[in-house]
Amino acid sequence: MNTVAGYNFAYLDEQTKRMIRRALLKAVAIPGYQVPFGSREMPLPYGWGTGGIQVTASILGRSDVLKVIDQGSDDTTNAVNIRRFFAQTAGVATTDSTGEASIIQTRHRIPEKPLGEHQIMVYQVPLPEPLGRLEPREAVTRKLHALADYGLMHVKLYEDIARYGHIASTYDYPVLVNGRYLMAPSPIPKFDNPKLHMNPALQLFGAGREKRVYAIPPYTRVESLDFEDHPFSVQRWDEPCALCGTADSFLDEVVLDDAGGRMFVCSDSDYCKTRQGAGHTGSQSPIPAEAT
Amino acid sequence: MNPLLRVEGLSKRFGEHIGCADVGFDLYPGEVLAVVGESGSGKSTLLKLLSTRLAADAGHVRYQITGRGLVDLAELSEAERRWLLRTDWGFVEQNPRDGLRMNVSAGANVGERLMATGARHYGQIRATASDWLARVELDPARLDELPTGFSGGMQQRLQIARNLVTRPRLVFMDEPTAGLDVSVQARLLDLMRELVTDLGLAAVIVTHDLAVARLLGHRLLVMRRGRVVETGLTDQVLDDPQHPYTQLLVSSVLQV
Amino acid sequence: MYVAVKGGETAILNSHELLAAARRGDEGVPEISPAQIREQMRLGVARVMSEGALYDEELAALALKQAAGDQVEAIFLLRAYRTTLPRFGYSLPVDSGRMNIRRRISAAFKDLPGGQVLGPTYDYTQRLLDFSLHAPAACKLPPCADEPLPAAMPRVADLLGHEGLMEAELPPAGDPAPGDLSREPLRFPADRATRLQNLARGDEGFLLAMGYSTQRGYANSHPFAGEIRMGEVALEIVPEELGFPIAIGEITLTECQMINQFAGSSTVPPQFTRGYGLAFGEAERKAMAMALVDRALRAAELGEEVVAPAQQPEFVLSHSDNVEASGFVQHLKLPHYVDFQSELELLRKMRKRHEGRKKVSVTEGNPLFGTGGKAHTEIAVGENA
After folding, report:
1. For residues C113 and C116, what is the distance between their CA atoms, to the nearest angstrom?
2. Most exposed: A290, B126, C23, C377, by fewest CB within 10 Å?
């Protein structure tokens, strides 16, 4: 595939990529620490993945195979748009298959299929500061991180339990990385939090509008905050995926009609398709047709 | 016995204005020092200097840290200072709203220091917070309520519980009863005297009210224009003031 | 590797064509050219240049055409373009004292050296819709003044400075080179040079509202429009191989110096202080609003109490950029069904619990929740009485 004339490989100029890679190296060296970087204005609106795109652009090589997902799916418009952007500006191979990808840029999900050491996850991050909702002043939160003073976050979790009987965060659930830095895992459902822990893949996080990158190196401890007597737990569904029958994946609720009819299907479209291809079925599986 | 706090030559200026000049004293474990003076006498500045909220121009504040002896607080890192502030020290603000988180429950207010120092068992944090509410004569059934619904006296007691839950050795108090009605004040003073004795707390209490000083203070420090004009055992100073300014203070109280 | 075209991709491409058709509108009406926009929509062009942070009338006009007149979209287009441009160098500071003035007014003095110059302004038009503009018409220039404007027009703030009534505008200690917000992230605390850069790129509507709030009691600024001047200034660079400055062209600027009261502090006598605004092109509203906000943001530095939003640097500077704001507000239309699903689950769980709790409290009362507010109110009142 040819790249767009007049622009550098993967859009960003090499100086900028080097600057971002330096920031990423620092991020890897201090797991969970938010490294400020000279975020550039991208031809994509802020909040739509400008951080993830810059990270991907700065690490992308010609032999990479790129997968882009949004809400777990390769087919959502924003994922299609970002994949198209790199296909045009870098001409790299793209794929829907989690296993084949060397770089996976994501918004809001981690694929269900376990990742390997040869892979890099790039997360799009809207709000990198986990303490931001409790303390909006950056000058203050920076100090709290420096001093590992995270009592405030536990006050919030305590208050949740006192009010609702359980911790009321369901996504962007705060984690402690390598026993040191409190980190926002980006708005992934807490269902995905356990996948952050000791993951063989390198995990990079880019926040373009807020101008921060951070990282979880391979095989790093990542703990979701909780109390001993209210341990962290993930969502479970009462029924399996209606298309592939799995009971282990994050399910989207699909509204079928206006009379309360609904079904639950995998949010990870590649995972679901792979399972269906292997012959797994669910309650709403189409009746097998003639091979076309 | 070694002093818990040793203060020497403490001075602070604000431009032309003298905040505090050459203040020095020793404070021993379990001892309550009352600092009295009119507004503008420098007593609140002194409290800020002692509690490291303000940096001094000259002089030293040394504190007995377990295993390290008397350590100059100016030499501590910010992390160490903050650790002291949330474990070994307490600070009771004049206005409880400045010392409480008004948007979280009473239980969370009391539990915060426990969580900041590593407590991770919700049930135990809750039980400890509940005990402390009872100790400061608040109904433990109100553990999950916001302090906004509490009266001023109740908020002040909640603030005291929040500070004492980590069993500090030293507590700073800035006019802790000033905003309260007289009847509420008396009850709070009784409670504070009890707690200080039971817990063996050392305390520095800033007040303009000689009655508060007499009730709580073992020793008295009289300040005027940033300087200490008289110091001694509380009863001694109040019954037989030597400095004309102290005499004036004492007589003006008697006149009321 | 072959990538199959997805439904999403087709939809995106079709949407582009629909957009182009909508932009063109009725083909019976002649198509507008960037040159027409540049010449006849110059104030719109100026705003796109200021907030797009690129002085290029051609490109700003093109962006406005492409954005169908949507300024924030045009600003975004210009920003996304400029980010890829190589840097050849930095210009020397422009000297607004040597501005070739077309407009210059002061609200602080009736007359002043150089005089008041009204120039082209909407200020004293009567805002009556001019129906004659339906048809093309020739326009005439007013007669020239009897004598040319003086070459030197001292800045009003400098006039007061001679008397010591105006704070000296001194560079910070060590005179460090200002940072470059388009290359370095905004960090707090931000120095004044950085704040001014941010405000210069900031959204005019946002600055207008923040500046306005300082006049209505949210901050206490007592401003006077010391001077507003608009005109052309020469832009100079020093090429490395030459070693001396050469003019590379001129740009139009609007500059505003607000004069504000200052009561003084223990170390500084009472004096006037400044708020500064600068924008590309003719942009008086922007420059004035910027000057108000700049002064408000100096509250902490001048030892004033910080009580209003316009005085909080983190609040103002983090929310002034319309490209950032527009993107993040509009990202809400991206799919959020994973997060929404999680919230849905939580809500159902909470409602189940709520139902259960209601039953408990009706039968036996729950010591943890809801002892009811009434009894507490009575205790509180009793204690305060």
Report:
1. 9
2. A290
Comparing CB atoms, the residue among A149, A161, A228 nearest residue B116 is A149
Compute the average pLDDT of residues A253-266: 86
Chains with 3+ CB–CB pairs under 8 A to C are A, B
Which residues does chain A have within 8 Å of residue B86's beta carbon, measured at their own beta carbons?
151
Query: C23 to chain B, minimum CA–CA distance in Å?
Result: 50
Q: What is the C-alpha separation between B233 and B219, in angstroms, rounded?
A: 4
- The CA-atom distances, in angstroms, between C360 and each of C22, C347, C353 are 61, 20, 11
Q: If you average pLDDT over residues A223-239, what whole number do you get?
A: 93
Cβ of C329 under 8 Å from any chain B Cβ? no
- Binned at pLDDT 50, 70 and 90, residue C370 comes out as very low
Q: Check whether residue C306 and residue C261 sit in a common domain.
A: yes
Query: Chain A residues with CB inside 8 Å of C334's CB?
Result: 47-48, 70, 78, 107
Query: pLDDT tens digit string along B198-245?
Result: 999 999 999 988 989 999 999 999 999 999 999 999 999 999 999 999
Residue B133 lies in a domain: no
pTM score of the predicted model: 0.82
Q: Is residue C384 less than 8 Å (CB to CB) from chain B?
A: yes
- CB A172, CB A185: distance < 8 Å: yes
Beta pairing partners, C228: C105, C256
Whether residues C212 and C298 fall in one domain: yes
Nearest CA in chain C to A65: C1
> C110: how many CB neighbours lie within 10 A of its CB?
7
Which positions of A are catalytic?
Answer: 32, 241, 244, 266, 272
Residue C267, pLDDT > 80, answer no
**Burial (CB count <10 Å: 0-12, 13-18, 19+), residue A35:** buried
Tokens of C174: 């060590």
Q: Is B141 on the interface with C (CB under 8 A)?
A: yes
3-class DSSP string for B39-86: CCCCHHHHHHHHCCCCCCCEEEEEEEECCCEEEEHHHCCHHHHHHHHH
Adjacent-strand bridge partners of A214: A205
Question: Is B14 close to C373, i.e. CB distance below 8 A?
Answer: no
Residue C139 in any domain: the answer is no
Measured between CA atoms, the residue of chain C closest to residue B139 is: C376
Residue-wise pLDDT tens digits, B39-55:
888 998 999 999 998 89
CB < 8 Å to C324, chain A: 46, 209
Query: C156 and C230: one domain?
Result: yes
Report how many domains make up chain B.
1
Q: Cβ A71–C11 below 8 Å, yes or no?
A: no
Domain-embedded: residue B150: no
Give the other-Cβ count within 10 Å of C214's Cβ: 26
Judged against a pLDDT cut of 90, whether residue B182 lies above it is answered with no
* Nearest-CA distance A233 → chain C (Å): 13
Residues with Cβ within 8 Å of C226's Cβ and at least 6 positions away in sequence, in order, are: C106, C107, C108, C156, C157, C160, C257, C258, C259, C274
Average pLDDT of the residues of chain B: 91
Asked whether the beta carbons of C252 and C280 are under 8 A apart, the reply is: yes
Residues 6+ apart with CB under 8 A from B249: B36, B37, B38, B210, B222, B241
Q: Give the pLDDT confidence of C1-40 residue by residue, as tens digits.
A: 233 345 678 888 899 999 999 999 999 999 999 999 999 9
Q: How many domains does chain C have?
A: 3
The range of the structural domain enclosing residue C42 comes to: 9-82
Q: How confident is the model at residue C266 (pLDDT cuts 50, 70, 90)?
A: low
Alpha-carbon Rg for chain A, nearest whole angstrom, is 20
% residues pLDDT > 70 (chain B): 98
User: Which chains are adjacent to chain B, needing at least 3 Cβ pairs under 8 Å?
Assistant: A, C
What is this model's ipTM? 0.88
Is some CB atom of chain C closer than 8 A to the CB atom of A262? Answer: no
Q: Chain A, 8-47: which have a CB under 8 Å from a chain B CB?
A: none
